[in-house]
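W.,

You were right to be curious about this one. When I first looked at the sequence I had no strong expectations either way, so I just let the prediction run and decided to look at it fresh. Below is the sequence, 394 residues in total, followed by the output.
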Amino acid sequence: MCGRAAYSAPCLSAAAKSLRGGGGTSAAGTNPNTASCGDEKPRSEVKAQGASTNIAPIALPREISDRPNASPGAVFHVFRRSIDAPNDPDRVECAPLIWGLLPHNGTHSSPHLLPSHPHFSPSPHYKIFNARSETVYDKPSFRGAMREGKTCILAVDGYYEWTKSQSLGDKRKQPYFVRNEDGRPLLLAGVWARVRTGRGHETIETFAILTMDARPEFAWIHPRQPVILMEGKGALEWLTRPTPQLVERLRSTPKKDSSDNAQQKSMWDKLVAHPVDKKVNDAKYQGTDCTAEIKLATKRSAGSIASFFSPGGGKKAKVDKKESAPGASSSETRPTSTLTGMPKHEKAMAEPDCNESVKEEEFWTCSKCTYVHEGAARFGYLACEICGSPRTDN
């Protein structure tokens, strides 16, 4: 599943260059104010993955609002085959579409609203923001668009997925950010449609992201993930010659002994995921720290077993506090220990100094998902409790 992504102008510019065969450039090294892609060298480049193509320069919008926590209902500039020259495979355009596909025409009584309308709501676009690659050629919502070759590519810095929180007492899901480790943009396969809004001849264009079964190394986060395209000719094939066979090939796991899939395997191997702050759970939050990596740690809740046996916790502590309340008899207010019932001055003589017996709590951190394993039990684990990665002590 893919329902949230980080979207930026540098990422869009880098993706346009990669589509022309300039080779995946890091999004951080591109110029977001470039009007067209292909004529300007970025400040930092890495080795090209795709071969050069004959694609003409792709005109990009001069102003793009960065959205580090973008969701369905928002407008994205996506790449697609030029609708002005649909039979020319060398013409690719960058057009503004709304994430969240609307497969049917609106009506006069229930029209589709454009983002510029004062009553626009993203809610209708949350119904179909993903398309299962296994059935994209069969489902009525996508079948017509796929047969007409209405495929597109959404370029993002990365996307978010959620898993259950491991912090005791915190039921909010933990977000993870999936990205390319070298900073290249992720090219997500999509399908788009144009329908009438129901208000005269007005039309609206929307799209959905194709999904597939998650690869084993990412299935611990979510069982589904978006279909990610290779740069260069691999991505252009999705725009110009989409077929059921291509969809099947895109969502299949590359074989280790297959030289044809070496590039695709390399692409998957470069994907990394790291935990981010739970502020991302709110779709309205657009802080610059959305994609920043954090360290996960377990938290003890007030009702945990550890707190029950800790000083001041449990029923015994509550009883002692009640017995020492004002108005109690002298025998009831005698200072006693919550553990032995001995007078405090006798307990101080019988027990060793607590500061001498305190031992620093041991823990280890997973090198993959950064989950912190605290306590005597978890410290003995040989694999991560969350993602299953083998323990690697530094």
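Here's what jumped out at me. The radius of gyration is 28 Å. And, maybe more interesting for your project: The first helix runs from residue 9 to 19.

Coffee later to discuss?

I.
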